[in-house]
Design brief:
There is one protein chain. The relative contact order is 0.07. The longest helix is centred in the first third of the chain and has 20 residues. With 595 residues, the chain is α+β, with helices and mostly antiparallel strands. A four-stranded antiparallel β-sheet has the order 22-30-29-23. A three-stranded mixed β-sheet has the order 2-1-6. The protein has 14 helices and 36 strands. A hairpin with a 4-residue loop joins strand 13 and strand 14.
């Protein structure tokens, strides 16, 4: 018992003596950062640690197999040396003397390493990590489709990479918990960044389908084949005539592009969009080739047989519907069917060949005749050309007939010759002299047929070709001076001119169904006569000296009134007055001066 007590007393004495001997020194066996600090004072311990702290250290950050090395200073890491020394002195100096003795003995026998306090400046660390991120990060790239001419080029999507800086700092802090060798390692938290558009294949496939081949645009219209003819008419057979245009892939490619759209599921994709302007311009040009006014049929009435024979086939008018055609093209252009039917609006003619039976043209209703005896060959030629323009015209009930509309252009290319016409205050040579013979004849037929006359102009002076009677002439000069009448009957009217060059007469026959109208004419009444002036002699350097040529003939001016009463039974339909103010006209001579 005594021995045991002595042993304990000796142990206490030994511990107490050991602690006293190390009162201001680190206990033996204690180390920090690989430096032995046992037996050293605080000042000596700080001095011993300085070489270790000054040695270059490294922070290793890993991105898969890639390793990035940075110094602690670059990362804002620094060691608090005072804390390390404090930790070394704390070994074996606790509140429990038995625990202290155990710690002191363990340190002497096995050694005891202490760690210090590492400080991290996050601002410095963030700057370093953001600089490092430039080497690691990659922006995502959306899938895309582009056109190289007419070739579709699809670019796949690329996933991006982004460094989580905050998580990296957290991992470095965790690594700093074991700083004995001042070697710090951490895996970089790099995450994938998905592109917005991941797949361009559907848009590319649609574009390739559109550009697979040119489009063939077709338009079908009715035409007529001449299968025979009679003395005055034609035998016509209808058939469908197709016209076609090619819409090449270059123009199609010019219309195409893509844009990003969001689906109902919230995911983005590429949609093919079109710029319609190039196609609209193309279709507008096609419309100029398709668009046309309807053409009325023309007929010949054979008086001997009472048959109505076709002279000119009717043709439906057409207007290309550009908007509807554009939609038809876009609805079909991604399919294998490369032929697209254009959309056109058809306009039926007022006088269609197929409607001949309903016209009820079976008898002569009225006729008007004028004589052109004494006309020059050129004037007779012009009368013939102008007359042909009115052959077979059918005027529908209620329709207004315009002479100028059917006459068209009066030009030499159509066969007209230079002949005398009235120009201002004189007679001169011009293309188409004699056309008024035709308008005057048509006017007389309408006058005596009892139709409503809506426009009629008298000549500037009395022209002997249109007499008798005076006051029933009608001059025309496009576009303002026209002869017009309305077929104000419920019956169709066929105009059939008859030109007799041998007798020098022109007759306009109106065939149809008798309208049972009677026409009473009062006049012509000459209310005023103005004598013509003296003869006029003009020098003409194109005529030889001694040659005199008369180009105008003297005629007195006259004011003529013709009245017309149109009745249907006892009912008076119209009471018209046609005033003609003819100016006095002087004889005019050209006197040659050419030597």
């Amino acid at each position: 018992m005594l021995a045991a007590l002595l042993l304990v007393a000796f142990g206490v004495w030994s511990v107490a003596g050991y602690e006293v001997s190390h009162g201001d020194r680190v206990f033996a066996g204690v180390s920090a950062l690989g430096v032995k600090l046992g037996g050293l004072t605080r000042t000596e311990a700080l001095a011993a640690l300085q070489p270790r702290l000054a040695r270059p250290q490294t922070v290793f950050l890993y991105d898969g197999t890639a390793r990035y090395a940075l110094t602690p200073a670059e990362m804002g890491i620094r060691l608090d040396a005072g804390t390390v020394v404090d930790a070394a002195f704390a070994v074996g100096r606790g509140s429990d003397w038995q625990a202290n003795a155990q710690d002191q003995l363990t340190a002497q026998l096995y050694g005891r390493a202490v760690s210090g306090s590492l400080l991290l400046d996050e601002g410095v660390a963030q700057v370093a990590l953001k600089r490092l991120a430039r080497q690691i990060e990659r922006a995502p790239r959306d899938a895309s489709v582009a056109l190289a001419g007419t070739q579709v080029v699809a670019t796949p999507a690329v996933t991006g990479r982004a460094l989580d800086v905050d998580e990296t700092i957290a991992r470095i802090r965790q690594a700093l918990e074991q700083p004995d060798e001042m070697r710090f390692e951490a895996d970089l938290p790099v995450r994938d960044v998905a592109p917005v558009v991941r797949d361009a294949a559907p848009a590319a496939a649609q574009m390739r389908a559109i550009l697979a081949a040119p489009l063939r645009l077709t338009y079908s219209e009715q035409a007529w084949n001449e299968t025979g003819k009679s003395a005055n008419g034609l035998l016509l057979t209808p058939f469908q005539q197709e016209r076609a245009w090619t819409l090449d892939t270059a123009l199609l490619a010019a219309m195409l592009s893509t844009k990003q759209v969001q689906g109902a599921d919230g995911k983005a994709s590429l949609a093919v969009v079109t710029d319609d302007a190039p196609l609209k311009a193309f279709l507008t040009d096609v419309a100029r080739q398709i668009d046309r006014a309807p053409r009325d049929a023309r007929f010949f009435f054979e008086e001997k047989t009472g048959k109505l024979l076709p002279l000119v086939a009717s043709q439906d008018g057409a207007t290309l519907d550009v908007a509807a055609s554009l939609q038809a093209i876009k609805a079909q252009w991604a399919t294998d069917n490369r032929a697209v039917s254009l959309v056109a609006k058809s306009v039926r003619p007022a006088i269609a060949l197929a409607d001949a039976d309903k016209f009820n043209i079976h008898e002569l209703v009225v006729s008007g005749t004028t004589s052109f005896k004494g006309s020059s060959a050129e004037r007779m030629q012009n009368i013939g050309v102008a007359t042909s323009r009115f052959q077979g015209i059918v005027v529908a009930p209620g329709q207004e007939f315009s002479f100028n509309e059917y006459l068209g252009d009066v030009v030499d290319a159509l066969g007209y010759e230079p002949a005398y016409i009235i120009v201002g205050d004189r007679t001169d040579v011009g293309i188409g002299g004699g056309v008024c013979q035709v308008s005057t004849t048509a006017f007389r037929a309408a006058f005596f047929g009892g139709y409503k006359i809506t426009q009629r102009w008298a000549h500037g002076y009395v022209v002997h070709y249109y007499e008798p009677p005076i006051g029933l002439d009608a001059t025309v000069f496009a576009p303002s001076v026209d002869f017009r009448f309305v077929n104000d009957t419920p019956n169709y009217l066929l105009i059939q001119p008859v030109l007799d060059t041998r007798e020098a007469t022109l007759t306009f026959k109106f065939f149809g169904t008798a309208n049972h109208r009677t026409v009473e004419m009062d006049g012509p009444n000459v209310t005023k006569v103005t004598p013509h002036g003296p003869d006029i002699y003009d020098k003409d350097p194109t005529l030889p000296v001694g040659v005199t040529k008369q180009i105008d003939f003297a005629v007195d001016g006259k004011t003529v009134v013709v009245k017309r009463t149109v009745k249907e039974g006892d009912k008076v339909l119209y009471k018209d007055t046609f005033n003609s103010n003819y100016r006095p006209w002087q004889a005019r001579f050209l006197v040659g001066t050419k030597k």
